[in-house]
Amino acid sequence: MWRVLLEPALLFGSPFIAYVLYLTLRRKYPFEVDHWTHGVVSTLALLGLVIAVAGVFLIGIFADRSQGPYIPAHIENGRIVPGRIQ
After folding, report:
1. Is 8 within 8 Å of 52 (Cβ atoms)?
2. What pLDDT is stored for residue 46 in this prediction?
3. Which residue of 12, 16, 65, 80 has the smallest Cβ count within 10 Å?
4. Concatenated DSSP letters for 24-57?
5. What is the distance between the alpha carbons of residues 54 and 60, in angstroms, rounded to a whole number?
6. pTM of the model
7. Element (H or E) spanning 79, and its range?
8. Could you tell me which of 58, 44, 55 has the C-alpha nearest to residue 16?
9. Could you count the other beta carbons within 10 Å of the beta carbon of residue 51?
10. Largest CA distance in the chain
11. What pLDDT does 52 receive?
């Protein structure tokens, strides 16, 4: 479950992280309000959305998938057998 939330969040946050690294390499303090204008934040947010949507789309296309059917968890001989994909 965490993977489903963290992957898009990290993809969305990557432009912001890159901008902070850029400001740090330029020897500017990245937490000054002057560096975070409405235009910069809007551009980074739109770029983050594009990267997150493209990343989720590409992960969905290229992810490994099992070819067998899913067998749900059940009880055999008084013991719980976990669900699995055959």
Report:
1. yes
2. 98
3. 65
4. HHTT--TT-GGG--HHHHHHHHHHHHHHHHHHHH
5. 10
6. 0.70
7. strand 79-81
8. 44
9. 17
10. 68
11. 96
Structure tokens at 5: 């939330």
CB of 12 closer than 8 Å to CB of 52: yes
Closest-CA residue to 53 (of 7, 1, 2): 7
The angle subtended at Cα 42 by Cα 40 and Cα 47, nearest 5°, is 95
Residue with tokens 């560096």: 35
Token pair of 68 as six digits: 């067998």
Give the whole-angstrom CA distance, residue 35 versus residue 40. 8
36-63 confidence digits (pLDDT tens)? 999 999 999 999 999 999 999 998 898 8
The predicted structure's pLDDT at residue 86: 81
Nearest CA to 60 among 21, 24, 8?
A: 8
Does residue 84 surpass a pLDDT of 90?
no
